[in-house]
Design a protein that fits this description.
Length: 263
């Protein structure tokens, strides 16, 4: 294991520098130099393609800025807020006593906490985006494969079992099934507010009489739906690229040092 660890660190560092970092940089360049498409322009383009008999075969990689449109709001399960979209998760928090020997050979006991996901749910209603240029809206396939959904965490709370009576979500829970070691539950929500502004980059295509935006057929191109602005997204991606570079260099240096020590 002592011999294997340096090679893992060096390999991981090289992977971060020469694969993950360039991929992140390419994504930044893709976003930075794309021209924002108005919804009306996209609708007109598909209308022209329809007249030429290519409506359902035409696909276009686009950048859209607009506001979320949802036919009905949903109630977030823990906060109770009415939102346009919600991704919620419930995690059981338990504790376990474990015995171990310290460096002096004495037996000690420590308490370890674990989190286990009990449920992970996403809204399943149709979500669309619309801008000021048109009354038409574009369907976002955010629950489809390949979508990088970047939305804020709006609720993150741990509650012990004794405090859960005020949450309607837990009214039908049977506590006996979770065991005495359960300390409580951690509740998380990521949500999109009604009329929230969105930045979307993905491939537009026709499904029936509606324009959808989803994962591009070219796997190298991204499908992103975020509440961040384009500028924030670019800056965040630049920071990630720098982290991969620095982290990769550090991992390689540590790997080299450990390799020399091993020999």
């Amino acid at each position: 294991m002592e011999i294997l660890l340096p090679f893992i660190l060096i390999g991981g560092g090289l992977f971060a520098i020469f694969y993950i970092r360039p991929k992140t940089q390419n994504s930044v360049m893709e976003i930075k130099y794309m021209q924002t498409k108005k919804v009306s322009e996209l609708v007109d383009m598909f209308s022209q393609m329809e007249q030429n008999g290519l409506g359902n075969d035409y696909r276009e990689f686009v950048e859209i800025k607009g506001n979320i449109v949802s036919n009905s709001l949903v109630e977030a399960p823990f906060s109770g807020k009415k939102v346009a979209y919600c991704h919620s998760a419930l995690r059981q928090v338990t504790e376990e006593k474990e015995q171990y020997r310290d460096s002096n050979g004495y037996t000690n006991t420590r308490v370890i906490k674990h989190e286990t996901t009990i449920s992970d749910e996403k809204s399943n209603q149709v979500i669309s985006v619309q801008d000021a240029s048109s009354q038409e809206n574009l369907v976002l396939e955010i629950n489809g494969t390949g979508c990088k959904l970047d939305i804020p965490k709006t609720f993150d709370r741990f509650e012990p079992k004794a405090n859960l009576g005020g949450y309607g979500y837990f009214r039908n829970f049977s506590w006996s099934r979770y065991g005495a070691e359960t300390l409580g539950f951690r509740m998380l929500e990521e949500t999109i507010e009604p009329n929230q502004s969105l930045y979307v980059i993905g491939e537009a295509f026709k499904v029936g009489d509606k324009i959808h935006i989803g994962k591009p057929q070219d796997s190298k191109k991204p499908f992103i739906v975020t509440t961040k602005s384009e500028e924030d997204l670019i800056n965040h991606s630049k920071q990630n690229a720098m982290i991969y570079l620095i982290g990769g260099i550090v991992a390689i240096l540590i790997g080299i040092v450990l390799l020399f020590k091993a020999f």
